[in-house]
Every structure is written in C-alpha cells, then in structure tokens.
Design goal:
Layout lengths: L1 H22 L5 E8 L2 H17 L3 E8 L5 H12 L5 E4 L15 H7 L3 H4 L18 E6 L1 E6 H6 L11 H7 L13 E3 L5 H7 L18 H16 L6 H4 L4 H6 L3 E7 L3 H8 L5 E4 L13 E9 L6 H14 L1 H7 L4 E2 L2 H6 L5 E2 L2 E2 L1 H7 L3 E2 L7 H15 L5 H19 L4
Parallel strand pairs: 1-2, 1-3, 6-7, 9-13
Antiparallel strand pairs: 3-9, 4-9, 4-10, 5-7, 5-8, 11-12
Length: 426
C-alpha cells in the first residue's frame, strides 16, 4: 500500500509539473532574428540577443542588425517577405498600423497556451497598440519613447518667466512664448525649437483626435484640430516664438537649444542621455510633462514604439516565441540593455531600474508618467499617404500663412478620401 501511495504521489507531481516541463523544453535548431538600429542602439540590441543565446546554448541564434538609413531596412524587409524567406523574428513598429500584419503570426494562441496575463508583465500603456481591430496580437512590445519638455532655467530667469509645471496648458505656453522673442537673424531667440514632432502635437494640443480608434472615421475637420492648427500658426507665423521652416534650416533644433537661443526643447527618451552630456555645465535645466490640452484635460504626448513579431512561416516557432517573451518581459537581463535606449516593455525593469535613473535633474520616471496619456505616432505605416496630405495642410498654415479654417476646407476632402481608401477598420 505504501508503494502504491508513493507511485500515486509521484504521478500527481509529474502531472502538476507537466506545463512547466513543456515551457522549459530545451530549444534547439536555428533561430534567425532581424533587428534595426545604428550606433549605441545597435549595440544594445546585440547585447540583449547575446544574453538570450547564452541562456539557450543548444540553439543556434543568427542575429542581423540592419540600418534604417537610406531605406536599407525597408528594402531588405520587403524583399524577404516577397521571397518568403523572412527571419523567424523581425523587428517592427505598431505605428505601421497593420501595413505588414499579413506576414505576422497571431500571438494570442501562444499567450493563452502559456497562461500569461500580459497586462501584469508589460509596462502600462505599451500593449494595446499591438492589437489589430480584429483582435490579432501581431507582436510584443520591446520599448517605447515619449517626450518631456526640457527648459533652460537660465533663459526663464533672464526673461522673467515662471518655470512651467506639470499642470501647464498649451494656452499657458502660448501666453508665455512671445516673452522669449528677441533679436533677429542668427541672434534671434525663441520660446521653443521647431521640432519634427510638433505637427503631431498640433493635432492633439486642443483636444483633437485624428481618427476613430477602430479607423471607422476621420475627425481632421473638427473644431479641436482647427484650434490646434491656429495655435501653432500664432506661435510660428504671428508671434515668431517657434522658428519658421526657413529659419530652422540654418541650425538643427538641438543646437538651437544647446546654444541658448531657444528656451524649450521637446526631448524624446531616445535622446536625453546624449543631450544631457552635451549640455554639461553650460546652463541649468529641468523638464516637465508636455502641456495639457485644457485646464481639466490631460498632458499631451506622442509615443514612438517598437517591438518584435514572429514571421507567419517561421521555421522555428517555439524558439521564436521564447525569444519574443524574453526580449519583451520575461528576461530582466535583456531588458536592462533595452532600458539604455528607451523605456522597456518589461514592467519590472521599467519600474525598478529605468524609472530610477536620472539625467541631470530629470528622472526617467517622468517618461513613464508621460506614457500614461500618450498616443501612438499618428501617421505611421499604412497611414503614411494620409500623413503626406496632413504635412501639406500643416505647411499651408505654418509656411504659406493660410488660416486653419481655410486649410481644413481645402485639405479635409483629400484627407477623408485617402483615409477611407485604406479601409483599415477591417
């Protein structure tokens, strides 16, 4: 009877351990991975993959880091998908908006099989954008970057302007901005640099929404979008508090900030380390969240994110899935390398390591806070053709001097037509 009882106990233990034994199955064969990046970014990608390869010694990991400059990445990716020989794992961005989703494996069955609550392990605000309208989970997040507004305290003191707070609004900014404008030509000073992210902020800064979350409608003719465009028209064309397009061509935006000719710089998480080093001891500075869209509203922000997808015809799907999990949330050592170039998807590392790192007076925790009220880059991937029309609309106001109402009347029919032709709601 003792022997039977012992056998039953062993049997129960084995059955109880089966799920873990399946998950712990040794990875073998070959896993191919494509990442993008250059410089420090590429180095951190490589180091993260090296950690994974070391953990799985019987798996041959072939990792390629491909530059995005000169469309090298786009061309190689398109060729690989067309030929049917794409890598098992490929880097992507959720702001493709489904452009390449036909090539990606739906990860929901893997998540369900392994019983993972992704909301518990992935940094808040990062996950939802990886789902398509039909529910497909096309990738897992790697990292994201949002913006803080860095400001030169010396310039604020010199011009007698109070420092901004996290509760400031875009109207507050519009009222303070003209106070920084002095001089002309190369000696002119500005409230803020002309940063490439500003056209996105113009859409949302007065509560505007570009389109429905499910892509069923476009709202670029709204009063809120019109108010945002008019605000930037005032700041650029009328007040001269942000450089015109012509003036911006004389000096890069970061140099305008570093040489103390602009008081505010929208500083992405991807550049704060390098800019902190360049600022050095030249001037005192700090940062706040970007302005709110209204007194009772939320701080506006724009997300630029990237993740990894599994190729639908991957040759080693179990190894690919294991890599996706580890690079996203299940391997803290990998995430610590990712945290050096952006906010990691690994919630534990984001909260316990990334958030506690500071650059000057600015804690990375501010970027985590900004993520909570941010929206994904508006005109990426499949929406690029609509974005091109928006750029024309933006230029018509901030270069040609057209009013926002006139711009909406001229360009909204074009935006609407291009948007619905994409048929992204399916």
């Amino acid at each position: 009877m003792k022997r039977i009882a012992l056998l039953l106990l062993v049997g129960l233990l084995v059955v109880g351990l089966l799920p873990n034994l399946v998950l712990a199955k040794e990875l073998t064969g070959t896993l191919t991975i494509w990442s993008w990046g250059a410089g420090h970014e590429a180095e951190m990608r490589e180091k993260a993959v090296e950690v994974f390869a070391k953990k799985h010694p019987n798996l041959e990991v072939i990792h390629s880091v491909i530059p995005t400059a000169d469309q090298v990445w786009d061309q190689r990716q398109a060729a690989a998908f067309a030929a049917g020989n794409a890598p098992d794992v490929i880097q992507m961005s959720p702001d493709y908006y489904g452009l390449l989703t036909e090539y990606y494996e739906d990860l929901r069955p893997y998540v369900e099989r392994d019983g993972i609550d992704l909301n518990e392990v992935i940094t808040e605000g990062m996950l939802d954008v990886y789902y398509r309208p039909d529910g497909k989970l096309e990738a897992l997040p790697l990292l994201a970057n949002v913006f803080v507004f860095a400001y030169n305290k010396n310039m604020f003191d010199e011009f007698g302007v109070e420092y901004p707070t996290h509760d400031w609004t875009w109207q507050d900014f519009a009222e303070m901005a003209p106070k920084f404008v002095t001089g002309s030509g190369v000696n002119r000073t500005y409230a803020m640099v002309r940063h490439w992210v500003l056209p996105n902020f113009a859409i949302i800064c007065q509560g505007g929404v570009p389109y429905a979350d499910d892509f069923s409608d476009i709202y670029m003719d709204s009063e809120e979008v019109r108010a945002g465009l008019d605000l930037f028209r005032y700041l650029i064309v009328e007040a001269g508090a942000i450089p015109t397009q012509a003036a911006a061509q004389t000096m890069p935006s970061e140099q305008l900030f570093l040489t103390e000719r602009a008081a505010i710089y929208p500083m992405g998480g991807f550049e704060i380390a390098s800019l902190t080093e360049e600022i050095g001891d030249w001037f005192e500075w700090d940062a706040v969240l970007p302005p709110k869209d209204s007194p009772d509203g939320k701080n506006t922000n724009i997300t630029y994110a990237t993740g990894y997808a599994m190729y639908k015809d991957a040759k080693n799907k179990e190894a690919a899935w294991e890599f996706l999990k580890e690079v996203s949330f299940a391997n803290d050592e990998m995430a610590q390398f990712t945290a050096q170039i952006g906010m990691p998807a690994n919630k534990k590392v984001a909260n316990e390591i990334y958030a506690k790192k500071s650059h000057g007076n600015v804690s990375n925790a501010l970027y985590l806070k900004g993520m909570e009220t941010s929206r994904l880059n508006i005109w990426g991937g499949a929406l690029a053709t609509v974005g091109d029309i928006w750029t024309e609309m933006w230029d018509s106001v901030n270069v040609a001097g057209m009013s926002a109402a006139e711009a909406q009347e001229k360009y909204f029919p074009l935006l609407e037509k291009a948007f619905f032709e994409l048929d992204l709601s399916k």
